[in-house]
Amino acid sequence: MGALDEGPLDLELENGVKLGSIDLGFEEEPETIAIEDAVRVLLHGLGEDVNREGLKKTPFRVAKALREGTKGYRQKVKEIVQGALFPEAGLDNGVGHAGGAGGLVIVRDLDLFSYCESCMLPFQVKCHVGYVPSGQRVVGLSKLSRVADVFAKRLQEPQRLADEVCSALHHGINPAGVAVILQCFHIHFPNLESVFLDSNNQSWVKVLVRSGSGVFENDTAEAWIDFLNLLQFRGINVEKARRRDSSDQFWCPSQSFSGEKTSSNNELANPGMDAAVASILRSLGEDPLRKELLGTPCRFLKWLMNFQNSKLEMKLNGFVFGRMDLLKPNGEVTQSEKHIHSELNLSFWSQCEHHLLPFHGVVHVGYFCSEGFNPIGKSLLQSIVHFYGFKLQVQERLTRQIAETVSSLLGGDVMVVVEANHTCMISRGIEKFGSSTATIAALGRFSTDPAARAMFLQSIPSTFTT
């Protein structure tokens, strides 16, 4: 399960490797079926209809995503490097180090993703790995990435991931030393209650960790100087890279927010949902009783239940439509007397109903506003955005729902742009790091006036950050 002692690593190196994609019989495998059954329990617990369009195939899609994203449990490291060690003599004489005679080799900017063992949400990793060859042999550079990916594709936390990659490479290559630095980015998702009170939520938790063996074993060793300088040469700030230990603050937002290490101190509204998450952990190859995972079902459910299908819509609509008379201007106003008003960068958080993976970003709202008309309050627009965001969603529907609701308030001339980062685009085998998605809904005059659309779009900040 990702232990760092040499026994399991030696066993993996000895037993070889099981590589490749999931077998063609994936749908019939017991682990897949067990995850599908567990996902149906979770959907029922959210008050959803598992037979509605959009959710019919969700259990299978979730099972496929999770098993693909944790395939490292079914892989071993020996044959990754065993057939990729090549003789390289290095310097025959003279002073110095080069090639197989001890010259430093670094591979930078490896984009990986892993699943957080504390909350089961994906997190992004930028991996930098180096080694000093010995025994006049070098390893194929792509193998450094593949070994790192094996351990990333497991439930992880940053320091253990760095240590496991470092140890596996040290055992597999037998170099003079291995160095690993990871830049890890965990999405900081607020809960439903807090987000209505404070919209300025931190989007990411970032941590920088290092691990070293051999000549890199001591964090202050001279061997680190060249490695760190070559990273800083590319603009990578590694000044804060260090080993984290058990005394450090939890890096997962779900742990720091809840203040709970285990689920034993938490009362769950639905024990069946807790059992379903434990079943998923077992099906992935994990032990739900491993001490680091004892609180994971509770923390995952605490996040998931933010998207419970509830009667919040009736309360919100009553609040919105009760204000309509206050927002309408007095008298008739012609289109020519109106100008475009906009509210930009309204934050939102949501959960993809296809894969039960989070996505988040910003919403931009534009509407025509007459002279003397008091624009709709930003807080009301933000409430509408959060209301539709905290549901099982797809981005296209979210965009349309926000536009239609604002249009019902303001008379129809509304345009909405949603920009989002989807964790399903970095996980489940897609791994399109840095990608973002934009959707548009244009109603009323915006749907027929290209100049109005262009004017509003040009007002949106050119840099999308969340």
Automatic annotation (TrEMBL):
InterPro entries: GTP-CH-I_C/QueF (IPR043133), GTP-CH-I_N (IPR043134), GTP_CycHdrlase_I (IPR001474), GTP_CycHdrlase_I_dom (IPR020602). Residues 35-187, 274-460 form the GTP cyclohydrolase I domain. Keywords: GTP-binding, Hydrolase, Metal-binding, Nucleotide-binding, Tetrahydrobiopterin biosynthesis, Zinc. It catalyses: GTP + H2O = 7,8-dihydroneopterin 3'-triphosphate + formate + H(+). It comes from the Eukaryota. GO terms for cellular component: cytoplasm. Pfam families: GTP_cyclohydroI. The keyword Glycoprotein does not apply. The keyword Metal-binding applies. Its EC number is 3.5.4.16. It is an enzyme of class 3 (hydrolase). One of its GO terms (biological process) is folic acid biosynthetic process. Pathway: Cofactor biosynthesis; 7,8-dihydroneopterin triphosphate biosynthesis; 7,8-dihydroneopterin triphosphate from GTP: step 1/1. GO terms for molecular function: GTP binding; GTP cyclohydrolase I activity; zinc ion binding. GTP cyclohydrolase 1 is the first enzyme in the biosynthetic pathway leading to folic acid. Belongs to the GTP cyclohydrolase I family. Homodimer. This is GTP cyclohydrolase 1.
